[in-house]
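Researcher: Let's do a round of design. I'm pasting the structure tokens now; please hold your answer until I've finished.
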């Protein structure tokens, strides 16, 4: 018995045929575009957006008294991010300032003593010259009276008086020499003490500069324009020097992409080549980039435990070469690309260039 098709069956069959034809055509178009892209571009989806993400680290320890930022906040260079209780650091600074003032006062006393002692030495030197002249004159008188005594023209008593006066003058001369030598020695001692005090002043100046730095470290500021990331501190928290307190993304440097291409894809890639970048978050938006470097080794070579093929467990695996690509464009246009976003990178093949 011959099967009869109703008008409804024929309509369904016609619609199904057209839908199938449309699907086949769509797949053909999609496949054509895909094949064209594969033949025109070296592409990879193993790529991520990168920027400099730096930790905010305290260089001083203490209690946090103020936190002046929130997560994801835009900050400018020099903005205060955190304030640490600085009272202990200020007290240390004042103590060092007082010690420095004391050392400077001691230096002034030594300088005054030096001036006084130099005057005393000059007076002693003049006394030495005077006593030397007295000895010289008295020696002449003694020689003359000794000659007169030998000629019996002078008494022995007079000769003994002249000799006694000569001995007194000689002793005074020697005493004045000792006093002058002591004055010179004292000047040298004071100069040595001044050297010690000057060294102490230099040490205290350096220590004071260090304490001033410590005080300045209690206000943690942004080193550049950027965006704050994760925050891990609160007011009243005790922190240590060197502790990571937050993270900041640097807005003053370029964004770049690290695209991990297969080793079989990089033969036509060179520094300065232009590429196309499409982010997974913005599939309808195309960004431009420029290759700025190719890694000197495969990614596995930089791993903590690089594979050793000489162990006998060799399986050939296509390696990946990190390619660094600068994202071109104005900052406001590319700020939608965030650190860690996945992107697709398309590098034009050599036979399609120019």
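Researcher: That's everything. Go ahead.
Model: Designed sequence:
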């Amino acid at each position: 018995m011959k099967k009869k098709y109703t008008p409804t069956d024929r309509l369904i069959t016609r619609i199904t045929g057209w839908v199938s034809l449309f699907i086949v055509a769509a797949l053909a178009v999609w496949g054509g575009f895909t094949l064209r892209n594969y033949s025109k571009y070296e592409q990879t989806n193993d790529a991520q957006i990168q920027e400099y993400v730096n930790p905010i680290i305290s260089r001083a320890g203490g209690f946090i008294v103020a936190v002046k930022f929130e997560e994801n906040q835009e900050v400018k260079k020099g903005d205060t991010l955190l304030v640490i209780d600085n009272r202990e650091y200020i007290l240390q600074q004042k103590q060092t300032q007082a010690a420095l003032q004391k050392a400077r006062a001691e230096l002034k006393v030594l300088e005054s003593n030096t001036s006084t002692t130099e005057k005393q030495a000059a007076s002693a030197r003049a006394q030495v010259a005077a006593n030397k002249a007295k000895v010289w004159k008295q020696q002449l008188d003694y020689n003359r009276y000794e000659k007169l005594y030998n000629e019996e023209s002078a008494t022995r008593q007079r000769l003994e008086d002249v000799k006694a006066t000569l001995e007194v003058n000689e002793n005074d001369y020697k005493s004045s020499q000792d006093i002058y030598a002591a004055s010179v020695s004292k000047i040298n001692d004071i100069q040595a003490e001044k050297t010690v005090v000057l060294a102490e002043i230099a040490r205290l100046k350096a220590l004071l500069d260090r304490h001033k730095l410590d005080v300045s470290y209690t206000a943690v500021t942004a080193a550049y324009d950027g965006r704050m990331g994760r925050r891990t501190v609160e007011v009243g928290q005790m922190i240590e020097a060197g502790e990571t307190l937050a993270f900041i993304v640097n807005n003053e440097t370029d964004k770049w992409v690290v695209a991990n291409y297969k080793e079989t894809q990089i033969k036509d890639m060179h520094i300065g080549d232009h590429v196309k970048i499409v982010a997974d978050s913005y599939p309808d938006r195309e960004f431009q980039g420029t290759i700025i470097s190719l890694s000197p080794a495969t990614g596995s070579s930089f791993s903590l435990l690089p594979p050793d093929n000489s162990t006998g467990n060799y399986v050939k695996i296509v390696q990946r070469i990190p390619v660094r690509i600068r994202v071109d464009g104005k900052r406001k246009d590319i700020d939608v690309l965030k650190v860690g976003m996945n992107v697709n990178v398309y590098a034009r093949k050599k036979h399609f260039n120019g």
